Prior knowledge:
The chain is an all-alpha fold. The protein has one domain. Helices cover 78% and strands 3% of the residues. The protein is built from 11 helices and 2 strands. Strand 1 (63-66) and strand 2 form a beta hairpin. The model is unreliable at 1-6 (pLDDT under 50).
Amino acid sequence: xxxxxxxxxxxxxxxxxxxxxxxxxxxxxxxxxxxxxxxxxxxxxxxxxxxxxxxxxxxxxxxxxxxxxxxxxxxxxxxxxxxxxxxxxxxxxxxxxxxxxxxxxxxxxxxxxxxxxxxxxxxxxxxxxxxxxxxxxxxxxxxxxxxxxxxxxxxxxxxxxxxxxxxxxxxxxxxxxxxxxxxxxxxxxxxxxxxxxxxxxxxxxxxxxxxxxxxxxxxxxxxxxxxxxxxxxxxxxxxxxxxxxxxxxxxxxxxxxxxxxxxxxxxx
Length: 268
């Protein structure tokens, strides 16, 4: 597929990269499509974060400690119940966001401008597969952490590109996990180093936004937390997909033409 030059920068070449090169490519892709990425994330993260902080504040306000007795008002119980419902709803909505953002990043890689509508349509179409992958990864990692911390980290690294595999190759849950396990084999340390670097960077950005609001009212804390999450979430998704593409470039010589064909086949 030739680059059409339709006002957008050319997509990054699918060649094996070192960690620094991959992170620079991720930053470049983010800057080229930042409006689309932020829009996709903000439409979910902002309202959910505001609701979470509001309900948490309402729940805490209704708890009164008098000596050894703890009194919980009816309003506080309602806030706790609403928080539980919101948590379950957030779990499902977040899976849609994960799929939508992965699809958007993949579209950006092949030089297409991602849209929120198409991205969320994809996320909705693959919701249950994405949720199933998340559950399986969580259970596998939990089992690893019960044994020792190291096995848990090992499992998380080996399954770290399951979502991109599911999105790009239109795989089902178990197939995506197997695909990730196979692709990461022999590259675990490099993949681990990449994600440790990403989590450190996003943690710094989050701290810059949220630290000044420590001790402030719930609204300011919620707004700053939402801003931090809206900014950092796309970067993590971009790096995850680029790691997946890097692994395929090393193992299979994946190119943009092949990737574009796979995305067309995966389109809902």
